Amino acid sequence: MNDEQPSVIRRLRTGFRNSPRGFIFFSLLPTLVLVLVFTYYPFLRGIVMAFQNYQLFDLTNVHFIGLDNFKTMFNDAKFKHASINSVYWVFISLILQFTIGLSVALLLNKRFRGRGIFQGFVFYPWALSGFLIGLIWKWMFNSQIGVINDLLIRTGIIHERIGFLSDPNWALSSVIVANIWYGIAFFAIMLLAALQSVPSELYEAGSMDGASGTRKLFSITMPYIMPTVITTTLLRAIWIFNDPSIIYGLTNGGPAGSTHILSSLMLDKIMYGGDYGAASAIGIVMIGILMLYTIFYLTVTRSEKLGDF
Amino acid sequence: MKRPLQKALKVVFLTLYLMVMAFPLYWIVITSLKPQKEIFSFPLHYWPSQLTLQNYINIIKISKFHIYIANSLLISLSAAAIVVCIAVLSAYVLARFRFRSHRHVMLGFFLTQMLPGFVALAPLYLLMSKLGLINSRISLVLMYTVGLIPFSTILLKGFFERIPSSLEEAAMIDGCSRMSALIRVIMPVMLNGISATFIFAFVQNWNELFMAVMFIDDESMKTLPVAMNSFVMKFDVDWGAMSAGTVLSVVPTIALFAVAQRFIVDGLTQGAVKG
Amino acid sequence: MAAKKEKKMLLGTVAGVLLIGVLAGCGDNGDGGSNGGSGKKVTLRMIESLTSPARTAVLQEMIAKFETANPDIKVELISPPFDQADNKIKTILGAKEDLDVLEVRDQTISEFSNNGYLEPLNDYVKDWPDYATEVDVAKTVASLGDKLYFITNGMYQRQMFYRKDWFQEKGIQPPTNYEEMVAAAIKLTDPSKNRYGFSFRGGPGANGVPDTIIQNYNFDNIDHDDSSFLKDGKSMYSTPEAKQALELYVKLYKEGSPKDSINWGYQEQVQAFTSGVTGILLQDPDAIPALTEKMDVNTIGTAPMPKGPSGKAFTATGGAGWGIASYSKHKDEAFKLIAFLSSPEQNTYFAIKTALIPIHSSASEDPFFQTDMYKTLLEMASKPDEFVNLKANTKYPGTSQWGQVAMESGQSLLLGKVSVEDTLKQWDKFWADQRANLK
């Protein structure tokens, strides 16, 4: 009371913290510091390598080579092939993961007997790591010792063993199947969470108007969960594009490079070639593609407002 | 007329779906209960000739799986908890306020999702090495936290936006500071979103392999995915151990789902929006 | 009410976990062997590459013995999973993170030495009596030029494993050369029974078999100091013999191996043999434990590696071993550890436990190596004129990429997308470029 100065300072301080600007600052600070230091800084250092001759075999000879890594990359048939594969890989996986995931979420949104067990089976693949998924499916897909061929032959569906991972006509489809199997759980759980938040008043109003189930889905449910749908499909597309682990585990890009996507090709350059320069160059192109895609996607879905882009 | 058909379709879809989803799990569980020699014997056995728990005993007794499970639990739960705490704050701010760099922050978050991680792994190792964080559990908690903040923020922001801001304004008029309004009034309503984020973060951490291999050296600090990866050897994959490990590694996640399920299901309907 | 309680519990656990997490992380860092003062306890950090849970256990047992004998030295063993191990070693070395002893392989020696990561051991072995009994092959595999970079801990050499019962059934003898092997493989193949002759590997490491056949078909002209090349300086892929050899290889895949094997790696190759899908396997001795564990031992026969048209065969001996990081602060202690692990007693024990060929000449007398699975290897070693040792070519920068290049182009060849001639041209160009660009 008689000590004026400190209380003013205290008020100033708490005032800053409680003022919108102070609150914004303090709330965002940890996030920004962490992301800048541990995500952007290492990444920028990694990106520099795209313009260098950076081969693990000879680190004494690292030097800038301008755009040579990019030139080599664009002239490489493998790169073109992997780019096309990436498109199939992302869209087929995404569309099927989403449709199945949404159907499952809609079913799970209602109470029925055995829902708990069903839910367990829907979610468990998500509890496995990508490397394990790759390993398990590689084992099951094996044409000689794998269980899928065995099952198909025993049930008489096929008579000759199928080389799911070795026949170039099958290989890409097979890795996509494994990827879909893995990714349904993500959509199911995220969309279920969104569905749970649809206020029941909306449905009650809908029922009074006599709307059918399908009508309700498209006129009430979907618009309400649209922000979640747009965000999750966009992010999921990005992740599927960027994640090499299933392909790495299942086929390693083979046979003859027929299942490489851009991210697995990049990993390949690091793991086997030790060529960080080439890998970084692919990485930069991947980011470019994703940025263009994101802008396109957000424009088409007219959701600038949603993410405040 | 339409109803029974619809119902039948639903049942067919559910059954088919369940079979496809469940079969790999069935195969893993069955393999984990087979004696070593039977796993690769032909013709394949769809039911073990003799059920054994030997694979489970081996991975606990010889491979010391309980240590790895404890490490993974500790690291995944800590990182998930920290992520939620940090992301709730930034998501709230980004949902409620418009400020000059708002757009840039959001863009910056989105961009992190596009960065192919492997390019950064070597520089990241160098950074952690300089910070003296190699071979400590804290390095993984830190990495997992950082990796998940952007997505968790984006996710939580969506949940915040569905809650009317009149809610905390009322509380602030009643004399709460913004912080306590957030914690006391908004968070309880958000519990479904928070649990979803927490589970998502937990599962990502629980499964992460590459950083765990790089940053941890000591056996006593290794995580579950690393331990499982060691069953892949030069000439052999130890499927007995691998399948038993898989079963054990799925259990905690399923348990977490079971617990958190109530929050996701009951979430908003029990919250203040309705009541 | 119940929901409220659960909410509280959740918040409680979250807070608790946070606290534990922070506490637990802090105590762990900082004891990474930085106490360099004399008289104090020295901590050595050591990393292995060819990891398996069983091998790690053996190493830990040996290290414990070393620590008992040297109470002032503590060893921290790092055992990353096998398929990530070399990458982790490279990352540690690149960051100069504390490391004293590391496992170097024939595949990584030139990369590591090129970057100055390895301490040459020539001076250390001068005062090490056991070096005298180490066999020459173990020394050459660990050297580049006149520098010794590691002390081999075990050697690999391929031999032929075959299904005795299948061969008896068909009334054929184990093959002695490549043509016989392909013929036998085709005879054994019966897709309706899911039986195939040869355990083929078209995935990682696919270059092994075609490289060996091509070398053997060029037997008289191969430059023994530069084994991908001929004495006249051309690559071995440029000859008509190479074409013959590669055609045989394609035939082996198309008629005597499972179609699926185009994408198989080491594990599938061995699994196919242990599961009774394939009848012939060419592999290193460290595959033996997987075979004896999963198969009826009486059905497994062993035979020497097939020969080429010259009636002789090149055998390549691979190896891995312990080296010292060039920036290690405790090199003397590090070598002490290596010397201990490489003594005849310890190395023989290690070799037996991990199914490798020991490095000391005395060890072959151990009864363990007289058993069926190993006697063929000894037989091959006893006829050095028939089974000529050829040092693997590891000095070129491309050595590490070659496996990948050969795998991808090889798969195109096996799928029939590219002809034998064009494949050979591609391979010839790869090696010619390597040679031209060598500093």
Automatic annotation (TrEMBL), chain A:
It comes from the Bacteria. The keyword Transmembrane applies. Keywords: Cell membrane, Membrane, Transmembrane, Transmembrane helix, Transport. Belongs to the binding-protein-dependent transport system permease family. It comes from Paenibacillus glycinis. Its main location: membrane. This is ABC transporter permease subunit. It holds the Pfam family BPD_transp_1. The chain crosses the membrane at residues 21-43, 87-109, 121-141, 170-196, 217-241, 276-300. It is found in: Cell membrane. The keyword Transmembrane helix applies. PROSITE patterns: ABC_TM1. It is a multi-pass membrane protein. InterPro entries: MetI-like, MetI-like_sf. Residues 83-297 form the ABC transmembrane type-1 domain.
UniProtKB/TrEMBL annotation, chain B:
It is found in: Cell membrane. SUPFAM superfamilies: MetI-like. Keywords: Cell membrane, Membrane, Sugar transport, Transmembrane, Transmembrane helix, Transport. Residues 69-260 form the ABC transmembrane type-1 domain. CDD domains: TM_PBP2. It is a multi-pass membrane protein. The keyword Transcription does not apply. The chain crosses the membrane at residues 12-30, 73-95, 107-126, 138-160, 181-203, 239-260. Its main location: membrane. Belongs to the binding-protein-dependent transport system permease family. MalFG subfamily. This is ABC transporter permease subunit.
UniProtKB/TrEMBL annotation, chain C:
Belongs to the bacterial solute-binding protein 1 family. Keywords: Signal, Transport. PANTHER family: ABC TRANSPORTER PERIPLASMIC-BINDING PROTEIN YCJN-RELATED, ARABINOSE-BINDING PROTEIN-RELATED. It comes from the Bacteria. This is Extracellular solute-binding protein. It comes from Paenibacillus glycinis. It holds the Pfam family SBP_bac_1.
